[in-house]
Amino acid sequence: MKSLAELAAIREKMQNKVVLREGGSDIRVVVGMATCGIAAGARPVLNTFVEEVAKAGLSDKITVTQTGCIGICQFEPVVEIYESGKDKVTYVKMTPEKAKEVVEKHLKGGQVIEDYVIKNI
Amino acid sequence: MVRAQVLICGGTGCTSSGSKKLIAEFEAQIAKNGLEDEVKIVRTGCFGLCALGPVVIVYPDGTFYSRVQEEDVKDIVEEHLIKGRVVERLAYKDVAEGVELKHGNVSLNDTTFYAKQKRVALRNCGVINPESIDEYIAMDGYAALGKALTEMTPDDVIRVVKDSGLRGRGGGGFPTGLKWSFTAKNQADQKYVVCNADEGDPGAFMDRSVLEGDPHAVVEAMAICGYATGASEGYVYVRAEYPIAVARLQKAIEDARAYGLLGKDIFGSGFDFDLFIRLGAGAFVCGEETALMTSIEGNRGEPRPRPPYPAVKGLFGKPTTENNVETFANIPQIILHGASFFNTMGTEKSKGTKVFALGGKIRHTGLVEIPMGTTLREIVEDIGGGIPNGKKFKAAQSGGPSGGCIPASLLDIEIDYDNLIAQGAMMGSGGLIVMDEDTCMVDIAKFFLEFTVDESCGKCTPCRIGTKRLYEILEKITSGKGTLADLDEMESLCKYIKENSLCGLGQTAPNPVLSTYRFFKDEYVAHVKDKKCPAGVCKKLLSFSVDRDLCKGCGMCARNCPADAIFKTTYIAPEHKLPSYCIDTDKCIKCGACMSTCKFKAISKK
What we know:
The complex is a heterodimer. By secondary structure, chain A is α+β, with helices and mostly antiparallel strands.
């Protein structure tokens, strides 16, 4: 190790991998992963969220996790976004493509995509 | 892409309760469900809650599972990792008062065990994979070394350590910065840094857990110490009974060398430093600094008189700085965050935090780190969860064979170096053994003294012969042959050993006797005057007897007696049909087998 820059580079690279363990992030993305959700394709949606959030370098601010059945099985895959100080947003009938859009517009841009929100389906 | 991580404790405690098998089972179940790319298994160091092991934590939600068995793994994988449903029957539920659960599930930090703790030395234990240097770097690892080498002079480093108020965590409590400055002052062609990981107190495992959970912190700190004092080589003296700690430390040193964090010209600063491990054979005296260095040199581990102090003439006759594992583990944090990060925690003369190994009669056996000044009551009742089986707290023993007891009347004592010494106990390296009302204090003193008699190296007479004579007096007292004169002799012998022994082992060996005698004199007196052991421990002072009116004459006791000391009488209690039994006290070996087999509680001991 000849410079602090090298050390910083390793830290940068690794931080995504340990950040999961710190918790306490501001935004939580919760994907419904009960039998109904999995059958409707929630797993690729969950994985897309994890990948896109990491790619955007937001892993320290956003926690992606899963939950059980929310009770609206016909709308699965369901994704809920919790942000402190704001109302919960529930996206339904999600796909990996829609997930990418949510990361781009909602999580990065702060813009709720009304078309995918439950009340508008 | 990894979306969830399963942290499994790989400390010695959880490894012995089966965490290795657990890891294999998790790997199998995760593979079976095709989750290899989504879920990562991390083997960590100790989480602290050893009594509840094996411990498993699932992130990102931080759900804390305790006592996980192989057959539970399937449920965790299929329910939690796939469906996101917490496996309630395994989830730990003991939540601290006033803690609001953030997301409905209990995470480690919400538990009563963790809520009052403050983790500095243990900050990475149970959080990172100790065998991954990259994970350590991700947690700001080696940033302190980088900062010291590129932005600070050796004097700056020493000043920060001095200002932080850090004192030696191995027991003595000598100011660390001052110690470093002594070595720095002395000119020599070669100086050394030594890490004392020869943890020998019965029931203590703080240093082991740091080495197992965060070995790089010690490596980094030793390099910083080398820079500050002008040493280019370091030795870690660790006992061979700590195989996991040794293996991880070895890997840490090799990885650090591969990254150039040990070796020549670290960070381009021109500073060279390398580190070596020396295994100790488990002699208690080798925890004494001069004996430890003698042992590293390849000689029999015996202490030598001081002065000259190691800072002048230490390892191989060169100026040497020796610190304990936990002391070192605090250093990177202090350098990185400044002296005020550390000296704002704790009491006036004892700064920062201290790690304790909680053991004995307590619900949460394990490893805790608390700010100095936390009361003993908080440790025992809140963090430790109190005494099991509804028993009463009697005393806590701190400092192992060199320390003393703190009785129930002093439960509100604020833990720091000076308060403990004022009460005849000492901080020691951090073993804290909790005792309940069933503990005989004379017996405890005898236990610790037996240990020091065994471990005395024999070099000086006061320790070699003095402790043996002292043990004999205690033996006499616990077997009911003691006199009041023996108590006086015991006290004066204690003083003599303390004043005349060569090293710390002998100088502190009488402490367990003196402190129990100070706080529990009535128990000693009961042993010699009334020939009774109030706690019912000292066998030779006990007598077992059958209450002939409660005895139904079933004969279970007689059949279970290994000494044939129980015989049938001719007495038949009015409401019973069979003759009762009686114990021949001359034959009785006081094993208690009869008492535990009697279903009618007709046998009692006094």
